Amino acid sequence: MTRAAAAMTRDAAAELDARDPLSAFRERFAIDPAVVYLDGNSLGCMPHAALERLHEVAAVGWGQRGVRSWDEGWLELPLEVGDRLGAAVLGAAPGQVVVGDSTTVCFYKLVCAALDARPGRTQIITDRDNFPTDRYVLEGVAQARGLQLTWLDGDPETVGAMVSPDTALVTFSHVSYRSARIADMAQVNAVVGDAGALMLWDLSHSAGSVPLSLDGDHAQLAVGCTYKYLNGGPGAPAYMYVQHELQAELRQPIWGWLGRRDPFEMAPGYEAAAGMRGFLSGTPPVLALAAADEGVKIVAEAGIDAIRAKGIALTELAISVADESGIRVASPREPARRGAHVALAHPDARALCAGLIERGVIPDFRRPDVIRFGFSPLTTRFVDVWDGVDALRGLLARGGPPGSG
Amino acid sequence: MTRAAAAMTRDAAAELDARDPLSAFRERFAIDPAVVYLDGNSLGCMPHAALERLHEVAAVGWGQRGVRSWDEGWLELPLEVGDRLGAAVLGAAPGQVVVGDSTTVCFYKLVCAALDARPGRTQIITDRDNFPTDRYVLEGVAQARGLQLTWLDGDPETVGAMVSPDTALVTFSHVSYRSARIADMAQVNAVVGDAGALMLWDLSHSAGSVPLSLDGDHAQLAVGCTYKYLNGGPGAPAYMYVQHELQAELRQPIWGWLGRRDPFEMAPGYEAAAGMRGFLSGTPPVLALAAADEGVKIVAEAGIDAIRAKGIALTELAISVADESGIRVASPREPARRGAHVALAHPDARALCAGLIERGVIPDFRRPDVIRFGFSPLTTRFVDVWDGVDALRGLLARGGPPGSG
Fold first, then answer.
1. Complex ipTM
2. Chain A to chain B, count of Cβ pairs less than 8 Å apart?
3. Phi and psi for B148 in degrees, rounded to 5?
4. Nearest CA in chain B to A56
């Protein structure tokens, strides 16, 4: 990138926007003009199409057709949206992705399924910097089953030194929620697979921001949320990916009626439905699922490669302005190893985030010292990146945030 | 009821509608005028307020405020809607109900929590006629833990002959999804409690149709869905009730971040949040939760006693017309022991249901021989009941449904 050479001006950022092939997508979303929204990696913006779809599924599907809608498409929705997501975003052939339940519940289900498929093995491995809900779920499951939860302190790629014939399950986030570091999925899959353990990826900060090739990288299991870069809505349902070859072997623990063969027979005795339907449990959250579908469709339309190219350009811009301003960058400097957000480190990060929000810039604070700027390529402009980092620079120039020690 | 004496005419049913104190509520819902919708106990009708609320929470909460909305009310929504539901519908003092996850997942969480609280006890009891998802979840949990799942063949009140010091958990539906029979909650709670076991109720077919007094009846645990008589929407989030005294003792198995103390600290180590928040797992499904809230509000406004009175009158009418027509009634005849739906039994029930749907009447088939007419007192008119049973009578008079053997 050539921008780092000379001081970056706001005009130069505006010039990048003028040349941005994705710029028209921003109009497809609701965006508060009063703020610089740099938190699309926490809650992505609302596609106008989601609002329309919500209205349609409620007014027509629920309001007019009522219970008949289950047979008129609703029952297929978890698999249909899953396949769309698989093709456009995850690099997964059809029949391996299903959408439903929260990310936490999906993660729990696949953790239990994996552990049940590796009886006698006593160890679970994750990294200390993994997303909290993943860490907490693992603690709970490890305690309930009397397994050992081992914390990796280094990067996911170093897990080879830790796996053993005792390892049942390894799980990491593909893109770190704090640093945005991208793990080498193919390499980790190979190492974990060689040890006979199962590998479960959390794609929450990857899907919709960086290309994924779950099939190509020989991924076994994955989960992720749809409300970040997929713009699926607050608390939108999450997805599960289970590699074709594993689907018959794995059994998820929450045996609900919608995961049963012929659920409306309501027959005695649970028999898991074939394929990904067997990973469902309860009644699908139709309204939220329909809204999330629209987010997936827009990402599919824009194309993940174009999104990735802009994501790199946005983070490069943020890093170059941060560098000019003496702000410490806590994300990888190599674009290929960095997702679509940037972590800027400062001892007063918490107070600085509050100061930014007062000034109309919305980042995330991540303890202990990270100001996280999330750039969502379909909605974030280059001038937003510039404005965000510039606002931080301004706060620091004034001697730091109010009340900082 | 005096109506059974003389043959019931449609005009007489219309007269009941004219005197119905709840009749105005029907206008608050979207209702397809082309059909007689007798399936509100499968999917309740859409309140117009739910459509408006969905639009508001999406367009304003998500679209304009974005991630800021979490601190502007969303994080409280699971508990706020729970308390509203507890007060208006469940007979539960504040701080004992939380809304989130599917009914199946909520049920699983409380089953596991209960079993963990009764270590060493090896038996789970339910009845053979319980709702399928409950039966399947129990099978899965019993198998995973090596516990004995014992099937009661009789009514829930006979469980006293089955409980023992080995019993960890007993669980029944309060209103049977097939017959509409209401269990004696206080009596069962006492019997199970005396055995030192925990009692978990499924209120899916009760809440919003019959009065409940969970606190007064010394209930310990309950779950239920919001998309039947609470008109919460397709796949709407379910609720959990945990008696105050048990909340500190019970720990649910899916340790997600939203169930942790100070979730946004993202700190190491799970520590359950106090109270019902500790029973949450993942990110709350905000859109669906907001829609469901509107359903709860309408029930609260109408009042459960008025709803119950109309529910009895609707089912009495159905039974009297069925009796006149020689159709076998498979629901309790005593109104006090019957919920708001009526099971009519016929060997050709499956084909008869298909024939009814062709004629614009929407019931449910429940294997092996039940035609289930669900009456939702806020939306079902007396003429709808009459039309539904009359259509069935017409089919039978023609020698049964097409293709019946």
1. 0.96
2. 263
3. -95, 125
4. B51
